[in-house]
Amino acid sequence: MLFKNATIYTMEEEPFIGDFRVDKGVFTEIGKNLEPKDEDIQDLSGFNVYPGMVEAHCHLGMEETAIGFEGNDLNEITDPITPNMRGIDGCNPMDETVQTALEAGVTTVAAGPGSANVIGGTFFAYKTKGNCIDEMSIQNPIAMKAAFGENPKNCYKGKKIDTRMQISALLRETLEKTKEYMKKKESDKDVDYDQKLEAMIPVIKREIPLKCHAHRADDMLTAIRIAKEYDIEITLDHATDSQAILDQIKESGFPCICGPSLCHK
Length: 265
Prior knowledge:
By secondary structure, the protein is α/β, with parallel strands linked by helices.
């Protein structure tokens, strides 16, 4: 189909009145005064056209809207260290919130475990159109979830975590154990398999970042400190208090992801 006379926002230049061509659901051409071919033509005068929005941090499809415990697969609150959890295994694309996101223009999301655990498991990216999460997935994994501050403290208070110091200690312990595990695997073919440490290897290899839940400035600085100690990649997610430490964040070179700001979760 050829759509003509729309106000087009490319997000890379000023909006303009123009045309675009779609073939099998894919934009194939955007410009001004495109010549019709053997195709249907629709006049979009007075309408605005935007690219699909991308939500870089959410839990869409993992905590369902219509039911309670049965549909809540957001946090595995049985152990503060669960890197072997995979977000894709807990995501229900047929929950109504996924369709709501699509209808609102959110076409791609990064989704995964919540922030109950110090290490929660892997995030993945998927398109919001479809009914089979394996077919909708576009990259898995994309990051390993980690959390600092109030959420792990609250979820494990009086059990395994009472302070921010323990959160950092558990994360460092896991990173160190992963490095040792990798060395053993290189030299010993009979090393016992460890599912949790296996899941952390891509983090140590810098193949995926730690996706760090951090609201307070001191939590963001702790995430940066640990990332530098272990030479790993991180993103600072939420970054609510970032205004207080803009210079330090800029110097670190690590990106911030604000939100989640769209949809049910």
